[in-house]
């Protein structure tokens, strides 16, 4: 009806315009009447007639039509006052407000954004025809979610000052459930086996949470691609989806899906050839081919082979190299030849590296992590590794490195590096509570990217029942231009070991370290330095164990240690915190050199491995091994106050922190000089958290213990095992870790703690 009214008004405007004019006249001035909100300059800009032009009556329809296209007016007419052209307009109303109610499946913000993209937003001109299209679009969005009973009621209310209010009331209804999925045409695989491959399902025990029993057009399309891949990866070269039928019951509550497929014959690979300008030797490229003659045709492995070959060629500067695998069936056989066509393109050089998103981090700090250089040829490997380096710094939540062709050239690109900075500084102060330390007071500042320089500084003070600590640290990851790092830290601690579940004595430690790190390869670093600490042991002979009293009697209670510190590290993690894939190996050694009160050494190895499985599921492996002992003229043992301990988060969950392993004469844990810890975790998507990267959940299996070579300490010598669940959260207060651990083989005397938590570190 509104469209018809507009057409009538337009026709009347044309008619009266023609009646009011002489044939032509020179326009001396233009006057616009009827404006309320719209600026007169807007009309002048759209008007095809300017002052000084000669106006012909026959041009009136074109003028009116042009003004209508602006969408601002519901009625337009032209008039004349002498030599003045009069434009009479009636403005469309403005949208005063938009209210959406009844929507649960789609967020209001998403709906308002969709309306805005179609021209419906507060303050904009109201166009009824656009609103009709919006209703249709919203219905389609709900249909794609399986909600076919959706009804949308739109009410437009006239407001003062030529405005309207739009109320959109949505009755979503219930999503249609998939009652049956049939696959026909299959002979090689059973229907149940094929249904196990796809995401869409009929109602079951857990579909209330997953929602996979609700019909979704996008999900079904993904399922069809999954079926195709399943067959293509098992030799069925000619597989095809012949038809897909989706039927809905009259009450719009149940969906029935029928998928008709054609399997074809299963093919085996007969021959593999590489043609084209390979750049590198064909022998080297064949190392990246994951299939062999005689094996089943596998599209996934063939595609991965082509990508790996293209990346290898890209490492030599041919960034846009293409390798296209083409299967060619052998006539009258079930064999297929695979030909990899190599097109390297031109060797590409990097003209400029542009950096975006670094509001606080200096450009040079980012460039230090980029292995790809300007004016050098673009290497696929170096570009990919540059992104990994940025993520491993811990300064950024996300980083992208994109190659952008330089206009007008065929052999140059720019690298656009964009980062999303993470808050790398933390000012702490307050009261807290820990299961081991009870009430904790802490204050400090830690800045891992100080003033955007990449340098790290920290000052902290912590006081609890078990210990008092003061510490200051400074690290420069690029002390030299070659990437040699330097770290300095000084500390003072007072520790009551008995409050930490350890044998009864206290320690006062004053010390410091100076460590340098040297890059050996892009992923390997060698570290070395010196350290010093002064340790004072305080005991009460009446309450201390025989081992502690005997040690103090023989060696005194104050010890100076002059240490050489060394280490080797390899790291291929894709990010510093919550990595998804990669391998890391750390080996550290500490040697108290002659001149120290006691001569000893400690060795420790930490191995971590992350392996993606499918989707967001990841497996993690961790192995922590340690060994220490004395040497020289000492008694050949590691000082008891430097022993290793096990139990608790980061060690063996489900057992009370530090309580496993050897015990002293009083039955208290005293630790050991041998550490053996291992852990396996299955990391899975955190329920209800979507793509939130600040939370990680997992199931774990821990194993390990500490042991001793001392003869006068009690040690049952057995490994302990535990299993349970773990949650890590990078909260605004700092990293939080919670675990529920259940010992699997606890023994008499073991101290159990099923629920454990910690603040300040992730594992």
Which helices and strands appear, and what pairs or packs with what?
Blueprint: H1 2-20, E1 24-26, E2 29-33, H2 40-46, E3 54-56, H3 60-68, E4 73-81, E5 84-91, E6 94-101, H4 108-117, H5 128-143, E7 151-159, E8 163-171, E9 177-184, H6 191-195, H7 207-210, H8 217-232, E10 240-248, E11 254-262, E12 268-276, H9 282-286, H10 299-314, E13 322-329, E14 335-343, E15 349-356, H11 363-367, H12 380-392, E16 396-405, E17 412-421, E18 425-434, E19 438-447, E20 456-464, E21 467-476, E22 485-496, E23 506-521, E24 524-538, H13 546-555, E25 558-571, E26 582-592, E27 600-614, E28 617-630, E29 674-684, E30 695-707, E31 720-731, E32 734-743, E33 755-759
Parallel strand pairs: 2-5, 6-8, 9-11, 12-14, 15-17
Antiparallel strand pairs: 1-3, 4-5, 7-8, 10-11, 13-14, 16-17, 18-19, 19-20, 20-21, 21-22, 22-23, 23-24, 24-25, 25-26, 26-27, 27-28, 28-29, 29-30, 30-31, 31-32, 32-33
What does this structure look like?
The chain is of the alpha+beta class and 763 residues long. The strands form 7 sheets. It has a 16-stranded antiparallel sheet, with no helix packed on it. A 3-stranded mixed sheet has the order 2-5-4. Helix 1 runs antiparallel to helix 3 (60-68). The longest helix has 19 residues, at 2-20. Residues 1-22 and 427-439 have low confidence and may be disordered.
Task: Give a brief outline of the structure.
The protein is built from 13 helices and 33 strands.
Oligomerization status of the protein chains: single chain
How would a textbook summarize the main sheet?
16 strands, antiparallel
Report the portion of residues in β strands.
35-45%
Determine the N-to-C terminus distance: 67 Å
In terms of structural class, how would the helical and strand content be classed?
A: alpha+beta
Helix content: 10-25%
What global shape is seen?
globular
Give me the number of helical elements.
Answer: 13
How do the strands line up in the largest sheet? 18-19-20-21-22-23-24-25-26-27-28-29-30-31-32-33
**Low-confidence sequence ranges:** 1-22, 427-439
How many β strands by DSSP? Answer: 33
Average of the residue pLDDT scores: 83
The radius of gyration is 37 Å
